[in-house]
Structure formats: C-alpha cells, structure tokens
Amino acid sequence: AVPRGIVASSEVEQSYVMIKPDGVQRGLEHYKDLKDKPFFPTLIDYITSGPVVCMAWEGDGVVASARKLIGSTNPLQAEPGTIRGDLAVQTGRNVVHGSDSPDNGKREIALWFKEGELCQWESVQTPWLVK
Ligand code: UDP
Ligand code: MG
C-alpha cells in the first residue's frame, strides 16, 4: 500500500496539516469546536467541496511552526511569505489548515488517518537540519 502520511511516534508533538479544497483545485466533522459559529454551515460546505491533501507532521514545536508557516486565519492579516499571506485572499478560502494545539494535532490525525496509514520516514537531510 502507498503510505498516505508520515509520522514516527506518538510521543512526539504532532500537527495535522491539510491543503483545503481550494488549495487542491486552484468533510468530515473536523471543525466540531466551531459548530456554534455563524460561519459553520459555509465552512462545512467549503471543506467538503472537493478533495483535500492530508498530512501528519511531527517534531518539536511542530504545531507552532506549522501555524507560522500557514499564517493568520484572515489572509489579509497573514504575513507575506506565509501560505495564506501569499496565496489566499478571503478567510473563507484560506487554502490550508493546521492544528491549533498538540492535543488537537493528535485528535485530528486520529480522525483523518486509519491505523497503518502513517509510516515512519526520515529524509537524509534531517540530521543536517535538526540535532
Ligand atoms: N472561518 C470562516 N470565517 C470566519 C472564521 C473562520 O470561514 O469568520 C473558516 C476559515 O476557513 C478558518 C476555519 O473556519 O480557517 C477555522 O477557523 P479557525 O478560527 O479555527 O481558524 P484557523 O485555525 O484555520 O486559522
Ligand atoms: Mg483552527
């Protein structure tokens, strides 16, 4: 089987990162914490509108570093050089998701990946980048 995600162990901090449908082309109740928000119905329409690319990332501080790379929720407030800052225009079409806490990282990875879908993998560059 072709591995769908890459993750080494449950002891290390993890973040679920997802390229949203607009990111793929230009559902799931993943957003249950937002179910009472006024934008929830449009958010669910959006997130189920097409295929997404799912990723499990792990490493020290990965939740914060993924969110730094992704940028602010509203692309207009996202810094240049971030994914949302460079590639998105509207909050409702902001290209990419990243978990907001280590606990939610574990929860979301468990929601989007089945047992056995994640594999252990290390780039040959890792020892040159991380001690
Ligand atoms: N969202 C929206 N309208 C809003 C706030 C959020 O459509 O006023 C959408 C947007 O796609 C956002 C997602 O809901 O990325 C989840 O909201 P959250 O506040 O968790 O932002 P995030 O963690 O993605 O930066
Ligand atoms: Mg969030």
Automatic annotation (TrEMBL):
Enzyme Commission identifier(s): 2.7.4.6
Cofactor field: Mg(2+)
Keyword Metal-binding: yes
GO cellular component term, pick one: mitochondrial matrix
Molecular function GO labels: ATP binding; metal ion binding; nucleoside diphosphate kinase activity
Catalytic residues in the record: 97 (pros-phosphohistidine intermediate)
Protein name per Swiss-Prot or TrEMBL: Nucleoside diphosphate kinase
Organism field: Panicum hallii var. hallii
